[in-house]
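fwd from M.: "can u put these together and see what the complex looks like"

so here's what she sent:
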Amino acid sequence: MPTVGPRSGDAIFAKVERVNAELFTLTYGAIVRQLLTDLEDVEEVNKQLDQMGYNIGTRLIDEFLAKANISRCVDFKETAEMIAKVGFKMFLGVTASVTNWDIEGTCCNMVLEENPLVDFVELPDTCQGLYYCNVLCGVIRGALEMVSMKTEVTWVRDVLRGDDSYELQVKLLKQVPEEYPYKDDE
Amino acid sequence: MIGVGKAKQYSNVLDKPLSKGKQEVSLSAFSFLFSELVQYNQTQVDNIAELERRLEDAGYSVGARVLELLCHREKGNRRETRLLGILSFVHSTVWKVLFGKVADSLEKGTEHEDEYMISEKELLVNRFISIPKDMGTFNCGAFVAGIVRGVLDGAGFPAVVTAHFVPVEGQQRPRTTILIKFAEEERSETGLSSLHIPALLSSNLVQFIWSRWRSWLLQSTFHLLDTLSFPIYTVSSLTCE
């Protein structure tokens, strides 16, 4: 079976420029706090975080494809593995494991081993409905949409909400056939 | 998959051991996030000054936390109580942790006794930012200015901190100068060098008592310029106003 590219993002992560994770963590915290103050509603904040993630995802995919040196993934399973092992590593320096595949191979869970977003974080009582890391859902959704996959990404477990791990569910809704934006008659 | 991804549970975030601060994420991850911060705030304002103020506020909350974190981790629960001490702390310790390097320079303004400048050839947050013409003097460094203000304020040295682009001869991109103007009463050294207040006691009450006490001690001020452990350059004039 031909290999499609690196099985881990370690080498790429070692090559890219990096910054202290605490700057990243605290900046993210500042964003969430600002949203909570502005929007005053936890649901709205979840939505906005997801939207921000989506914006990031649609741009981040370019860098991923340019640097990860991978060829086309044959199926969604491989895509998910690639995100977990290469994608997370390349940008956040952590890896995730993919579990709980459904029979059709269109829905799986990703368990994050570490999560740099949540250092120093504790949710106060007033924010119990907050998906603090919702930005990650948006990133995956946005990035996959740019490679013709409509997905739905949700948190199923969150340590900040009392669970024992960080776990995302990624569900493939449909594969959009590739359309060329340019017209032939030009 | 038992044991995979099991994050250890702590009943309280304070029970969790403090990280060593050696973890890293990619610069692009930070830059993407920062750009979202700027873009989101752009939707919330209708002028540049307001946008800078909001970025500064975001930075302030980072600075306040950085101060506590670093005093605890790097300084053995001690906090600088001298003006030049805290400036050097910002210029070296804070910069090193947040941006991976000591700031390019720390200078004292000559026209005004109470002004200091931290300059950086290429500020991390400005690396991938180009300002559209119609946004005039807008500088994303306002976020970093906010961090500096957060650190200084938390340490008891309130200041007005702003970020400016300063053109450099022979360079295409301007450098960024963080201008620090201390509030009136902070102008001279406090002489409190032998007294250290644990950083983690920075509750409002302690701050209050401390600032009272300091203003009393201010009467016995003296110059500490010659005891500096870092170079302070004096520049002829402020170019960045």
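replying to her w this: Helices of chain A lie at 10-15, 21-39, 42-68, 76-92, 134-146.
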